[in-house]
């Protein structure tokens, strides 16, 4: 929460410093509690709790010492019903979105399990690499959200449009820089987690079929970040269609038609997952509702309204 406040006002450095400090401290405490003091699993848990707690205290200390309007004055901390309601309705769609995505992953994982332990291990290895590679794209999306919210509050609509365009191009560049070396060294990367030949085949195929879709993921993340920045959390949440499209499509690809088209079951599995992994991208233009130039003049600067037109893919219209 504290890191989110700092990022919202444009301070992304101190949350990064706290995160680095927390990661280093967690590693040192792991070594101390597990390797030296022999606390076992409990020692690893305590290391995580202590490092996260110290990071939280550092963030609160910074917010308490600030002189700006977002400074925490503990004697004035109260639960404001109106603000609580706003925060709840802004955060609830994002929470449901993450829950729905996780729920759909259960079906996908169950589908992968039918192909045996090698496919499961290959998918798990790919997932670890995927999480690492997606982080820069998600971070840029968070930056776009902050930038859009600040400029919308200042009524600088042209900079809102420009930030969406620049953010998408930056994500494209980052995705290409990440994708090319990972595609080239796919097999050695998978071998870091498992050296079984069949697992290496599955993991390598997952990477080579799915990672080119990172370019589509860039559009998804940046435009969803823009919509959240202008206060529209329901349209990004429209990606609950992932549950409605991803699972039936994935299951249908298990049928005999795909089996006849793909001679190897490994290819059949990976092709199906590559198509349905990020289906919300294809639905994004229909959810990208709202022309941000339609901003109502209201006493409360936080109240904005969007026009009903659908923006042109992939940038907001001029």
Note the main attributes of this structure.
single chain, 318 residues, mainly alpha, 14 helices, disordered C terminus
Strand-helix topology:
Elements lengths: L1 H7 L4 H24 L4 H25 L15 H33 L3 H37 L3 H28 L1 H5 L6 H14 L3 H16 L4 H4 L3 H12 L3 H6 L3 H12 L3 H8 L31
Beta-strand share of residues: under 5%
What's the tally of helices? Answer: 14
C-alpha Rg, in Å? Answer: 22 Å
Task: Report mean pLDDT, rounded to a whole number.
Answer: 75
Shape: globular
The biggest beta sheet reads: none
* Strand/helix succession: HHHHHHHHHHHHHH
Number of DSSP-assigned strands: 0
Relative helix content: over 70%
What structural class do helix, strand and pairing data support?
A: mainly alpha
Question: What's the quick description here?
Answer:
By secondary structure, this protein is mainly alpha-helical. It is built from 14 helices and no strands.
Folded structure, characterized:
- The protein is mostly helical.
- It has 14 helices and no strands.
- α2 (13-36) packs antiparallel against α3 (41-65) and α11 runs antiparallel to α13.
- The longest helix has 37 residues, at 117-153.
- The chain is globular.
- Mean pLDDT is 75; it is low at 254-268 and 270-318.
């Amino acid at each position: 929460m504290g890191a989110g406040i700092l990022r919202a006002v444009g301070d992304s450095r101190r949350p990064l410093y706290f995160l680095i400090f927390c990661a280093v401290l967690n590693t040192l405490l792991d070594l101390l509690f597990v390797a030296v003091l022999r606390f076992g699993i409990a020692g690893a848990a305590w290391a995580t709790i202590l490092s996260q707690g110290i990071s939280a205290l550092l963030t609160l200390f910074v917010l308490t010492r600030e002189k700006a309007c977002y400074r925490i004055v503990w004697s004035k901390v109260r639960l404001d019903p109106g603000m609580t309601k706003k925060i709840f309705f802004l955060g609830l769609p994002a929470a449901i979105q993450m829950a729905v995505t996780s729920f759909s992953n259960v079906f996908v994982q169950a589908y992968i399990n039918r192909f045996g332990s090698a496919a499961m291990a290959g998918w798990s290895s790919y997932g670890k690499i995927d999480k690492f590679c997606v982080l820069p794209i998600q971070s840029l999306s968070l930056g776009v959200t902050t930038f859009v919210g600040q400029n919308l509050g200042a009524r600088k609509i042209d900079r809102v449009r420009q930030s969406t365009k620049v953010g998408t191009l930056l994500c494209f560049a980052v995705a290409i820089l990440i994708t090319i070396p990972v595609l080239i060294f796919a097999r050695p990367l998978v071998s870091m987690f498992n050296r079984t030949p069949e697992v290496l085949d599955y993991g390598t195929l997952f990477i080579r079929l799915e990672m080119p879709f990172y370019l589509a993921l860039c559009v998804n993340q940046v435009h969803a970040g823009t919509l959240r920045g202008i206060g529209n959390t329901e349209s990004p949440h429209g990606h609950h269609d992932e549950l409605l499209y991803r699972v039936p499509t994935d299951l249908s690809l298990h049928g005999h038609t795909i089996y006849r088209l793909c001679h190897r079951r490994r290819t059949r599995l990976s092709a199906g997952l590559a198509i349905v992994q990020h289906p919300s991208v294809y639905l994004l233009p229909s959810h990208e509702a709202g022309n941000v130039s339609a901003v109502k003049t209201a006493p409360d600067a936080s109240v904005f309204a969007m026009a009903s037109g659908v923006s042109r893919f992939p940038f907001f219209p001029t």
